[in-house]
Structures are given as structure tokens and as C-alpha cells.
Write a structure and sequence with these properties.
The protein is mostly beta strands and 255 residues long. The protein has helices at 50-53, 169-175, 247-254, and strands at residues 15-16, 25-30, 34-42, 45-48, 71-75, 86-95, 110-114, 124-125, 139-144, 160-165, 190-193, 210-214, 220-228, 239-243. The structure holds arginine. Arginine binds at residues 146, 201-207, 226, 228-229, 232, 239.
């Protein structure tokens, strides 16, 4: 499966998401501009990337949540301009207390509490018993409102999705050994996905968005949140995702 050709074609190498699909994928803007993606995991909770909800970036090693009032969350619309979306303000921002503590980009998740319960059905985080559906080699779905290529001036006008194979922890560690290209790989809090030859990947603006595995009944489960990568879709540089379905991040979200 890893040797197969990457599908031609945002998200880099993706296709537009049809209207009405992936309604739980959130289009997040902060202070009216800086964009991230997120995922509805409970009627009033969206998970996104730590570096989206944190004021501290990589400079101050203490996670301080963005003022909730500056964050806008749009659900149920594939349109980048938010047309037809269910619009939310945020009442609470909870940054993982281990974000940035472990290594430059570890525990890259933040929880946003919405001002009112969404009418959208949340996606379930993969259960512990579903571990096999996201083993290395399995194809997973990525989606987001981010750039369709590393140097694109602006994102496409429709949410994009694509499929990428989950990679082994050894592959991920080999691709990100030294903190260059966004961080060093930490298997406890990260997983990575992508073809060896690149071409299909998440990119800037997709951060916090979902990496989804297919459950045995065909429905999707959340296994990752887009975190970082060296460029987008480069050969040998798979995308790195926060490991939300097990380990310390699963425990953080459960709290
Ligand atoms: N950090 C980026 C963001 O803020 C996401 C980068 C994902 N990169 C990748 N090559 N998979 O949106």
C-alpha cells in the first residue's frame, strides 16, 4: 500500500469535499484572520491544534489560551467563506498543560468550548478497542481548510480531503529526528501519515483538523489532529498529527 501511487490532484493533493459531508470539521478563525481547522468531538467541544489556541507559540513554554472572544468557529459548511455555516463563539479555551513542555511541538492540542451545543453530530474518537483500524499501512482521511500547496497565496474556496497511509513510528522518527522542519517526532503524542513520495498532505491552515480512520461499520473515527510537517507534501516528509486516540492526549481530552 505504501508503494502505491499517490492520487493526483488541496490539503495538498486532495479533492473538494461535497456539500453536506464532514459537517463536524470546523473552520476556525482567530482575531478575524489566522486560520486553523478543528473537529467537533462533543456537542459543544471542538478539538484543534495547541499552536492555534495558544498565545505563546514556541517562545514562552507556558500554554496560555487565546482570549476566547477572539475565536470564531464555523461548522457544517464546506465553504471557506462560511456560507451556510453554523456559527459559534467560544466560551473557554483549554490548552493541553503539556503542550510545548515535552518538546517543541508535543501535545499539540487545544479544546474549544462552544457558546451553544451544535446541531451537527460529533465524530467519535477511535475507541481503545479500535486500535487496529489505524495501524501503520492503513489509509486514513485528512481534511481541512488549509493551503493546496506549500506556496499557495490563499486556500481553496472549498474544504479539501484526501487519503494518506498511516506510517510506522520508526518511519516518522526517521523523517523528523532533529526538530528541523517543525519538531522532532515523539511517538507518545504524535503519529504521522503520508506516502513516501509525498504529494498528498495537510498544509498551513489545516492545523487542528482531523486524521480519520474507517471503523469496521464504515463510519469514521478521529485518530489525529494536524500538527506540523516540513513544507507540505514533500517526499520523505509525512505530515505529523497529534495522537488523540491514545496515550497522554487521549487522557487530556477525557478530562
Ligand atoms: N502547522 C500547520 C498549520 O498551522 C499545519 C502543517 C501541516 N503540515 C504538513 N506538512 N502536514 O496549519
Amino acid at each position: 500500500m505504501l508503494g502505491a501511487a499517490a492520487p493526483a490532484g488541496a490539503v495538498v493533493g486532495g479533492t473538494p469535499v461535497p456539500d453536506g459531508q464532514l459537517r463536524y470539521v470546523a473552520n476556525i478563525s482567530i482575531a478575524g484572520a489566522f486560520g486553523c481547522t478543528g473537529t467537533l468531538i462533543a456537542p459543544d467541544w471542538v478539538v484543534t491544534a495547541g499552536h492555534c489556541g495558544s498565545l505563546t507559540g514556541s517562545i514562552v513554554p507556558t500554554p496560555i489560551g487565546m482570549p476566547a472572544s477572539t475565536i470564531d468557529v464555523k461548522l457544517a459548511s464546506v465553504h471557506t467563506d462560511g456560507s451556510g455555516a453554523e456559527d459559534h463563539k467560544v466560551t473557554q479555551v483549554i490548552v493541553d498543560s503539556d503542550y510545548l513542555v515535552t518538546n517543541g511541538s508535543g501535545n499539540d492540542v487545544t479544546l474549544l468550548q462552544l457558546d451553544h451545543a451544535s446541531a451537527v453530530r460529533p465524530v467519535l474518537i477511535a475507541a481503545v478497542g479500535e486500535r487496529a483500524i489505524w495501524n501503520a499501512g492503513r489509509l486514513a482521511t485528512i481534511a481541512g481548510f488549509g493551503l493546496a500547496s506549500e506556496n499557495a497565496p490563499q486556500p481553496p474556496d472549498t474544504m479539501q480531503k484526501a487519503r494518506v497511509p498511516i506510517r510506522s513510528d520508526a518511519d516518522c522518527a526517521a523523517a523528523y529526528p532533529d526538530g528541523l522542519g517543525g519538531g522532532s517526532f515523539d511517538a507518545k503524542t504524535m503519529l504521522c501519515a503520508g506516502y513516501p513520495q509525498g504529494g498528498t498532505d495537510t498544509c498551513q491552515g489545516d492545523s487542528g483538523g482531523p486524521l480519520l480512520a474507517k471503523a469496521l461499520d464504515g463510519s469514521l473515527r478521529l485518530v489525529g489532529a494536524t500538527s506540523f510537517g516540513d513544507g507540505c507534501g514533500r517526499p520523505g516528509k509525512p505530515g505529523v498529527y497529534a495522537r488523540v486516540a491514545e496515550g497522554p492526549i487521549r487522557s487530556f481530552i477525557a478530562r
